[in-house]
Amino acid sequence: MSAVQPLRRGLHLVASRSVATSGPLAANASVQLFARQQRTSSRLPAVGRSLAPRPWGAPALSQQGAVRHYASPSTPLRKTQLYDLHVAHGGKMVPFGGFSMPLQYSDLSHVESHMWTREKASVFDVSHMVQHQLSGPGAMDLLMKVTPSSLDKLKENTSTLSCLLEDGTGGIVDDCVITRRSGDTFYFVTNAGRRDEDLAFLEAEISAYKATHGPDSLKWEILEDRGLIALQGPQAASVLQAVAVDTDLSTLYFGNCREIHLTLPGGEQTAEPLLVSRTGYTGEDGFEISIPTAKDASLPQKVTELLLADPAKVRLAGLAARDSLRLEAGMCLYGSDISTSQTPPGASLGWVVGKDRRDPAAKPFNGAASIRPQLASPAKTLSQRRVGFTVEKGPPAREGAFLVDLNDESRTPIGVITSGLPSPSLGGTNIAMGYVKNGMHKKGTEVGVVVRNKVRKAVVTAMPWVESKFYRPKA
Amino acid sequence: MAAVARCLRPFASRALSQQLPLAGVRRVSPAAGFPRGSIRSFSQSPLSQLKKYTESHEWIDLAADGTAKIGVTEYAAQSLGDVVYVELPSADLEVAAGEPVGAVESVKSASDVLSPVSGTVLQGNAALEDKAKLINESPEGDAWIAEIKVNDPAELDALMDEAAYKESISGEDH
């Protein structure tokens, strides 16, 4: 019963979910049926094995875009620089975003790992994500066309959550974090599961820009050789400070970044500085650390092992904990909670649109013509809202479950859950995120959610469920 | 061959139940009122003939009177991780082979439990209502999920025996 062996049945749930989310309303009645068909077909071994090699754990983590990619069994899974380290620590490796990534490790269960992150600190390998650098005289212009962020107001070495937007529709191509490294140099990180779409999108936008402004207007690099890890949890800062002797992390606030050398066990400094950003995807204080490998190919392992030196404080955590942590923190997962079908305001992410970019007279960005009216009068323009739900005791409401009006016996869908699970931090209380029709989105509104054909009561709840503990300057 | 297997099954079933630590609990079912006798001599009977497994990681254990308990395997329980909720079937539910007879939910995912054979549900395991975690502790013992009256014991012949099941999961490594 090796922990490394995932449960094949999960494949079918995954398949049913990815279908359910690709056409929420159409899939309404068929969710259960489809799951059953999938399961039934699994009885033929050949079918079971030829399905996308996604074990049970991957689904809610799925960046749906990724499903399509690695649905093709011919695409071999990639490995991050930390693959061997994961395996050595008993990582249960699963396909995710085209990579073989750890779902969890043998030392802690999913729930234990989740709580460990909330109480101590965890290291996550996020090297599968795509790191980019865009520089040149046109870099700001280009990024302010493809995102709605006020990047011109962004100070050096600070970052912002943003969205890449489709031209015309303003649909979210991907969410990303953009850091201004210097005047016209930007570092940004996009999702692994959207790699192909993002690269095609950026390639087209950048080519068009260069066609007008000249080949030297932009320099776009994909930083393939860099590792990326996240150190998250209340003890993250003290653990990192202990090995970052030349810098004072108490002045590195949420949303800031700094190049830092760490001191390795032998006393020597890391061969190159690491780009340390105070940010994360758990709601805890913590850091994302971009690690170059040009001068030392083993630097990602060395840094990870350095941070793991005291197992009483820091453990490795995988995708399973990452997903439950981010949901408790009310954060979106691309492919589950957001997609090209939503604009930022349509996904209740209107705040990513810079204040000065909302004015119809301001310089446009992709989709501005649809997005600006949505921000100005949401009640008139948005048919549904993304909100949180707390679901009554019993089975969790998960991705693909339909929302109904409790007074409507016909169970006409009024929305759909896009992420949901029993919250480890809240003792198993069922929490969920999803879209509900405009008017039913106010905090405290009671709705029904259909789980395996039974209607369960859910209440619209403010997110996050677990208060974020970002390290900000004291007011 | 199948007929022989069927004849052996009742005896082997009891032999198995005596070998398992939780035999007492399993015996509580009124349906399993098969008299205990000098069964020990049958303890050499191949277990594979009464406890069978599915590719979707359920087990089914057939008793002498045509009732059977259904649950998820050790392997499944381990893969699921912390089980937080078990959906039990209601009595009298008629299930076909491959149809859900319950569901098991961990923090991470939900999985249907498919009935390995057709039959009618006698009861769900009420012990799981308050303690879903039992699935992690004793998946092939106390934490059976459904007890059903099997329509045709011959349906079990198509399922995997323990050796075949173990073989099938040994290849599932990613």
Topology:
The complex is a heterodimer of chains A (475) and B (174).
Chain A: H1 9-22, H2 30-41, H3 45-50, H4 64-70, H5 83-88, E1 93-96, E2 99-102, H6 110-119, E3 121-125, E4 130-135, H7 139-146, E5 158-165, E6 172-182, E7 185-190, H8 195-213, E8 219-222, E9 227-232, H9 236-243, E10 257-260, E11 274-277, E12 286-291, H10 299-307, E13 314-316, H11 319-328, H12 368-376, H13 378-381, E14 384-391, E15 402-404, E16 413-423, E17 429-437, E18 446-451, E19 454-461
Parallel strand pairs in A: 3-13
Antiparallel strand pairs in A: 1-2, 3-9, 4-7, 4-8, 5-6, 6-7, 9-12, 10-11, 11-12, 14-17, 14-19, 15-16, 15-18, 16-17, 18-19
Helix pairs in contact in A: 1-2, 6-11
Chain B: H1 2-19, H2 23-27, E1 51-53, E2 58-62, E3 67-72, H3 74-80, E4 83-87, E5 94-95, E6 100-106, E7 110-114, E8 119-124, H4 127-130, H5 134-137, E9 146-150, H6 162-170
Q: Would you give an account of this structure?
A:
- The complex is a heterodimer of chains A (475) and B (174).
- By secondary structure, chain A is of the alpha+beta class.
- Among the domains of chain A are: 9-103, no CATH class; 227-325, Probable tRNA modification gtpase trme, domain 1 (Gyrase A, domain 2); 383-466, Aminomethyltransferase beta-barrel domains (Elongation Factor Tu (Ef-tu), domain 3, Beta Barrel).
- Chain A is 26% helix and 24% strand.
- Chain A has helices at 9-22, 30-41, 45-50, 64-70, 83-88, 110-119, 139-146, 195-213, 236-243, 299-307, 319-328, 368-376, 378-381, and strands at residues 93-96, 99-102, 121-125, 130-135, 158-165, 172-182, 185-190, 219-222, 227-232, 257-260, 274-277, 286-291, 314-316, 384-391, 402-404, 413-423, 429-437, 446-451, 454-461.
- In chain A, 53% of the residues are buried.
- Chain B has one domain (2-170): OB fold (Dihydrolipoamide Acetyltransferase, E2P).
- Chain B has six helices and nine strands, in the order ααβββαβββββααβα.
- In chain B, a hairpin with a 4-residue loop joins strand 1 and strand 2.
- In chain B, 46% of the residues are buried.
- Chains A and B meet through helix 1, helix 2, strand 1, helix 6 and helix 11 of A and helix 3, strand 4, strand 6 and strand 7 of B.
- Chain A: Residues 385-466 form the Aminomethyltransferase C-terminal domain.
- Chain A: It catalyses: N(6)-[(R)-S(8)-aminomethyldihydrolipoyl]-L-lysyl-[protein] + (6S)-5,6,7,8-tetrahydrofolate = N(6)-[(R)-dihydrolipoyl]-L-lysyl-[protein] + (6R)-5,10-methylene-5,6,7,8-tetrahydrofolate + NH4(+).
